[in-house]
Amino acid sequence: MAKFIEGKVVEQHRWNERLLSLSVEADPIAFEAGQFTKLALPVEGEMLARAYSFVNTPHERPYEFYYNIVPEGALTLRLARLQPGDAVWLAPAAAGFLVLSEVPDARNLWMLATGTGIAPFLSILKSETAWTRYSRIVLVEAVRQAQELAYRDTIEQFKRERAGRFTSVQFVSREQAPGALCGRVPQAILDGRLEAAAGVELSAASSQVLLCGNPGMVTDSVHALAQRGMKKHRRRSPGHITVENYW
């Protein structure tokens, strides 16, 4: 356990039967909005650890992590059983490049997520940096069923506080849901439905795009964006797309 610091569970919020948010008090961990750390539990004498993004900003406490129960997942099944006051361990350092310090300036910032991939974007949206650097911000959340659309109150708060600058678009792929688009995000990029729904330009001239979630969505969206003249951003070769697979 020397590689981890011990924390205490503050709250376990259950969004539905498989989606939960875990709040944890622990010693300070330095991180930038959009980064992740590892949560760990001792299992048979060893620490079982997995990476999870912070939902909170670097200045907020407790730490918050959004995760889904994987039926065959040894760690998530154990995390879901934790109660307030129980111990959970965290890696003392954060990692990840889905951070605005790595993203070029632009007029519009797009955040495209599937499932729990929305977590780092919530952290970024709660921070002031995004609002000082980008005129318009679009959050795209894609899920299979409407009951998987979490953090609705938080997103509505962004809409109120950043009226005229923030737009959210939801996709529900396996059922009809009021107010949500059907189908997959990559196809909606190709056919223009996403841009039309957001009312914000999506182009190489105006936009930076952050992608986080299912590797299939990430890969297909990168290909769809390439048809708009957009490419992956790298320090040595500036572009328009920053990605993190979240699976």
Q: Main beta sheet: strand number and arrangement?
A: 6 strands, antiparallel
CATH class of the largest domain: Alpha Beta
Compute the CA-based radius of gyration: 18 Å
Task: Give me the side-by-side strand order of the main sheet.
Answer: 4-3-6-1-2-5
| Poorly predicted sequence stretches spanning 5 or more consecutive residues | none
The overall number of domains is 2
User: Structural class per helix/strand content?
Assistant: alpha/beta
Counting DSSP E segments of at least 2 residues, the number of strands comes to 11
- Can you tell me the CATH superfamily of the largest domain? Nucleotide-binding domain of ferredoxin-NADP reductase (FNR) module
Tell me the series of helices and strands, N- to C-terminal.
Answer: EEEEEHEEHHEHEHHEHE
The overall pLDDT, averaged over residues, is 94
Instruction: Report the span from N to C terminus.
Output: 25 Å
Helical content class: 10-25%
Could you please say which CATH topology of the largest domain applies here? Rossmann fold
Strand content: 25-35%
Number of helices: 7
CATH-derived architecture of the largest domain: 3-Layer(aba) Sandwich
- Judging from the principal axes of the Cα atoms, what is the shape? globular
Keywords:
single chain, about 250 residues, alpha/beta, Elongation Factor Tu (Ef-tu), domain 3, Rossmann fold, 2 domains, six-stranded antiparallel β-sheet, five-stranded parallel β-sheet, about 30% strand, globular
Report on the structure:
This protein is of the alpha/beta class and 247 residues long. The protein has two domains: 5-90, Beta Barrel (Elongation Factor Tu (Ef-tu), domain 3), CATH 2.40.30.10; 100-245, Nucleotide-binding domain of ferredoxin-NADP reductase (FNR) module (Rossmann fold, 3-Layer(aba) Sandwich), CATH 3.40.50. The chain has seven helices and eleven strands. The strands form two sheets. It has a six-stranded antiparallel sheet. Strands 9-8-7-10-11 form a five-stranded parallel sheet, with helices on both faces. The longest helix is centred in the C-terminal third of the chain and has 12 residues, at 215-226. The two termini are 25 Å apart.
